[in-house]
Amino acid sequence: MTRSITVPAAVLGIVLAAGGCGVRPTGTTSAGITPRAGAQAEHITIYLVKDGGLTAVTRPGLPGRPFLGIAQLAVRPTSWEWRQGLRTEVPGPLGGAPGPTTAYPDGTVRTYVMISLKPPEKPLSRTAIAQIVCTAAAVPGYHGAALQQVEGGGHTMHDCDEYADLLG
After folding, report:
1. Is the model's pTM score more than 0.90?
2. How far apart are CA 39 and CA 13, in angstroms?
3. Quick check: is 74 in a domain?
4. Exposure string (b/e) for 20-37, b if CB count within 10 Å is 16 or more?
5. What is the largest CA-CA distance in the chain?
6. Which of 68 and 150 is assigned the larger pLDDT?
7. Is 22 contained in some domain?
8. Contact between 155 and 148 (Cβ < 8 Å)
9. Is residue 90 part of a domain?
10. pLDDT tens digits, one per residue of 59-106
11. Which residues contact 114 (CB under 8 A, 6 or more apart)?
12. Which PROSITE patterns match (predicted)?
């Protein structure tokens, strides 16, 4: 019984193999210019802590990720940064998003990065807040941070110049 099934299956396999798939061979066909990645990685500026003050540090960025520097504040400094005495006081992950734009009486218009702060176990230090605000101000097109407490819902806007005493 098994012989009667395997013989027709083998014959069918031979017929299909002999018939091919119906596609005739051709030469190499040009499809145009070889694609190349055109986006360049931007640099981001973040503010780390050194000797109680803030120091601007440049890191490689990613195209289309303008708020990457905000997230980088909670990442441990690189080995080179660590050897330079740099550290972060930002305890946990942060994310940024386009925030409010405010027009002031003197005619200036400022746009802020919206940053939601989860309630930390202990209040953020002034230095940690300065890191966040000054890093937000380093994002092209933004002037500072609108810090929003997740539980409270409201936000307060801060500019980096409020922390001028910490900038080195």
Report:
1. no
2. 50
3. yes
4. eeeeeeeeeeeeeeeeee
5. 96
6. 68
7. no
8. yes
9. yes
10. 999 988 999 999 999 999 999 999 999 999 998 888 888 899 989 899
11. 96, 97, 98, 99, 100, 145, 146, 148, 155
12. PROKAR_LIPOPROTEIN
